[in-house]
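Input:
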Amino acid sequence: GAVVSQHPSRVICKSGTSVKIECRSLDFQATTMFWYRQFPKKSLMLMATSNEGSKATYEQGVEKDKFLINHASLTLSTLTVTSAHPEDSSFYICSARPPDERGPNEQFFGPGTRLTVL
Amino acid sequence: GQNIDQPTEMTATEGAIVQINCTYQTSGFNGLFWYQQHAGEAPTFLSYNVLDGLEEKGRFSSFLSRSKGYSYLLLKELQMKDSASYLCAVKDSNYQLIWGAGTKLIIKP
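Output:
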């Protein structure tokens, strides 16, 4: 099956700093990637849809200036949490969708990044 | 609005059978997914239903009734490693995935 990686897996930072999370599709080209965040015991919340070569589409209530998304290539999307605060602490998960995926499992998830802001 | 309902938590015994229900109200329907998520890990795909009926895959089966807006995931011969959260997700008319809050399944020996 398709493999998606995320880096780093865990990050602890001080309040006010910025953190960059990378999402890579290792064995396929992903024209579309998705960024989710998940609070403890809660379901996935879609933050934005990232399309290669164009601006990301943000969900309602997600600050685009705080959560910067760059999808510069078909295998890499990055999420930068700018001026992080403790309330940004969460589990961030990316997923990727191959352009010609015909199977039902259209999204392949990365392993997630645990962000803790002190 | 769009809504997916599933129980918050269920408990079952090793070796037994458990059924996790999911009901949905969405703007359109283009398939229903079940994912398994262990604590601190990303979801992994379990099953996909787009037509009514039962899809069987080893110890796991998933059922769909579109007229009732209802699905269930059936897990047989439960093993301790099946302890996880199970997420129901529906693809709506815009092909967006709408996620349920997940059901935490606790398996006891």
